[in-house]
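Hi team,

As requested, here is the filled-out complex form for the zinc ion run. I kept the field names the same as last time so the parser does not choke. Let me know if anything looks off before we queue the next batch.

— J.
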Amino acid sequence: MKPLEGLTILDLSRVLACPFASMILAELGARVIKVEQPRGGDETRSFEPQLARDSAYYFVCNRSKESITVNLRSHEGRLLVRGLAQKADVLVEGKKILAVGPNLHAGGADVIDARGRIVMPGFIDTHHHQFETALRSFLANGLLINDGSGSPSANPTYFEYILLTFAPVYRPEDVYISELFGGLSQLDDGVTTVHDVSQIHHSPEHSDAAIKALFDTGRRAAFGFFESAGANILGTNPGNKYPTDAPRIKSQWFSSSDQLVHMIMGGEVYLGDATTDQSWTIGRQLGLQIAAHILSPFGIRPIFDKLAAGTGGNGRIGIGPDNLFIHMTGMADAAWQKVKDVGAQVSIAFPIEMNMRHGIPPILKLQSLGMEPSLSTDVEVTMTADFFTQMRVCMNMQRMVVNQMVLEQGDFYPPSQWPTPTADKPQLLNVRDVLRFATLNGAKHLRLDGKTGSLTPGKEADIIILDATAINVAPLNNVPGAVVSLMDRTNVETVIVAGRVRKWKGKLLDVDLNHLRRQLESSRDFIFAKAGVLQNLYG
Ligand SMILES: [Zn+2]
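And here is what came back:
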């Protein structure tokens, strides 16, 4: 095999130096497409000596190439060349991206033939409770909290069952297998980075099990050190060391910044002012980002008002650029303005917020402030952690609301049944917007944009390869459109994290999924039995 086989080079050069250089690349195995102008082509075609009206000079410099004639003065010609240039190579060395573009010189590199594929940065999930993987789909109809309605959605519910019944009985080994299995599942889906919001820290052993699982998954992660679910409310889990174990955890596991997993401090505000004061103070002393769920119930709005005013916790805690706020449903305008002013980040879980009564995902509020969200899957007890679902639901929800606002400018009678949007209407989200939310925004919100979030030379190689030749996608007419509108996990062919291939041609590497699934099932059986909840497949 020749060293450059598999590379395609678009050659727009003429006369001598560049055609000679690209000829060498062609001789080394690259496919070189030479673009020539109409009416004579490359000037050297007329150079002497001629052999049967062909220039020997031209053929020496352009041998082994393909040639096409394109009129670059025409719109169609420019479109054609732009289309050819959109096919590019990504050169990776070790864990870093060295270059992106057509015509890359790969030397002796291994080549992944991605023709017919879409190569893009991996997805980034900024809020996911992976410890709940053993409880997947248990709460498919459930609300956050029992609302007293007696409806199937009011019982079972998230707060009473997941947080106060199941979570307190978890052992460290339950934490480990749920974290690992949930993480691998998202890796298979092309989600190369997660912020794991683990509220399962009943003891230091539980914390260490969660962290070990994040490392063992082999993807990029922020370990969110949150509370011990149930401890504050039920008085269970007396061995828990939240939040005072944070310095031990940071020095034991996160002394290096050159590793796949880093730490975020959980700073929930509904655990009482004293705990908020303590967790935010410790987090800031350690230089960590501080994340918290901010949502309509649990009396959070007045608490958040105080934090926005700088008088939270025991009176002196305020929000800052180190905050990552999750949901942000139901908050006051002044508090929102403060979030914007201090440069805090907002993660939205569109499907979950719509299903579990958090409130309408605040995308229009963010747009009105000139802010953008990252996306979060939240809980698989109620909804998939698949990222194609995230992007589609985000776009659908926003467009449903804005489209209706525009329609209601008219009265549904001709001639005002299809109004032109007035200037005050929010812009409709498009597929590029939600792709950015799902990748680069996630990286920024986890302070990882120096390492991941885009295919940029110098960043680490978190890359996914999506099959655009598949039956649910072909023919390819719009690259971002195909990813957001058509694709699902079956199209995720290859997943690379920091230069290491974790999924190859549709199969996760280095895992025995049957073995892990049996472990997860036996953990699930233990959790249900210990919690005193009957397993009911059709409940
Ligand atoms: Zn959450």
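Two things worth flagging: The chain has 17 helices and 20 strands. Residues 127, 129, 197, 293, 326, 378 surround zinc ion (CB under 6 Å).

Thanks,
J.
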